[in-house]
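User: Can you help me understand a structure? I only have the sequence.
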Amino acid sequence: MSVLPHRQNDRVVLAVICLAVFMADLDSSIVNISLPTIAAAFHVDLGVVSWVVMAYLLVVTGLMLAFGRLGDMLGLCRVFTSGLILFTAGSFFCALSGSIEILIASRVVQGIGGAAILAIAPALLAASLPEQRRGWALGIMMTVVSFAIAAGPILGGFLTEYAGWPWIFIINVPVGIAAAILSVRIVGGDPVPQQAGQFDTAGAVLILLALTTLLYPVSQGLYLGWTSPVVAGCLLVSLFAFVLFWLHERRCTNPLVDLRLFSSPAYLRGNMAGMLLLLAFAGAIFLLPFYFELVRGTSTDVVGLLLGIPAVALIVCGPVAGRLSDRYGSRGLMAASAALSAATMYLFSLADASTGLAFLIIALLLLGVGIGIFVPPNMRLILGSGGTESGGVASAVMMTIRTAGALFGVAVYGTIAMQAIAGSATGQAMTAASGQMVSGIQAAFLAGAVICLAVAVISLFTPEPETTPSPE
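Assistant: Let's start by predicting it. Here is the structure, written out as tokens:
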């Protein structure tokens, strides 16, 4: 990917992208803690109010590929700025919602804007900054993402308690306006590709259907039961839609996703490795609160502090790993961090009710270090091998795969743990006695260690992109 013509100051570009990504990722973590308050305000049950979160996540994931293609057709900066404006407007309407239906509809608007932001942000960074600084910039962006995810529950709880739930959305408005104003400064250097072709509407509809009918049952399978008609029906529809999408894209003149992207070994294996490591990390973060609260009896506020340790490690390691990948390449860092993550998962598989706190703090720190060292080199490798003409799509595919990997992580770890506890796939298994809980969690983390070892092997056999990193 070449640098945009008339490239603006690197720090301005990075600031715009980080502001937007912070806002979008904060919104995915700030809302959860306010759901009981929102349910009470609108007199609805938790099943209904859960769609405040579900609607956003499904729309974001389902539309990222479409926005990646639009970025390649219309210009990355234009689509990115449009996403910012739409997300900010959606936030404003969320704050003013007078009913749960309007709030959910406003979250859909937010999700459309968030999809544009998250799909385009990595590609825009890669296209705007010189190759020698891309790893560093991606590390900074990952640091911002980590901070947003860590700060979301804290900020959301404070705003809900002392200002009211609408403020969890109002806070986005000034940030979004500032980011949109700054983004105008880089739109002038955004070339519109020649011969971009027509937008693949049929492909966009098929992939939206395929992803939403896949991710909804994956996110709800632990509670509905994996053999329930809803889950089975959605998965069958998803499989059918994916097959139709693949057949359509092979025959389409201007496909939504150029399937030749996956002919690049670096791109294919880099995405496989990224998805699997995100799966392991997300699964660990999902299970650890059950371990601390139900096995050790740790209070919720202390658990929150403990789970902040990986986030701090992520914040510290991201820029360092990015710099190292700029200088030495990505493959070695990815393999080493995956091996470290495998060792960390094994450490957690040894934990029980009597495990020392110091041991657990070290394991939590290593968990954050492992993912923190992995992500910037992995993103740099993927974006460097995605091709010049399809940077938006290459970025969107990467982000979609990562989002799906995180949701699969919750499903995989949760299912393994519950099967080991009670031989059941129902949510009641999580109320098992402490000894059974330990055995289930240990089994899940052992599986995570195997997954991380597979990532290390894949990384070792992943070639660097054709363009080699600068020694400076």
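Now, to help you interpret it: The chain has two domains: 1-187, 263-464. The radius of gyration is 21 Å. Let me know which part you'd like to focus on.
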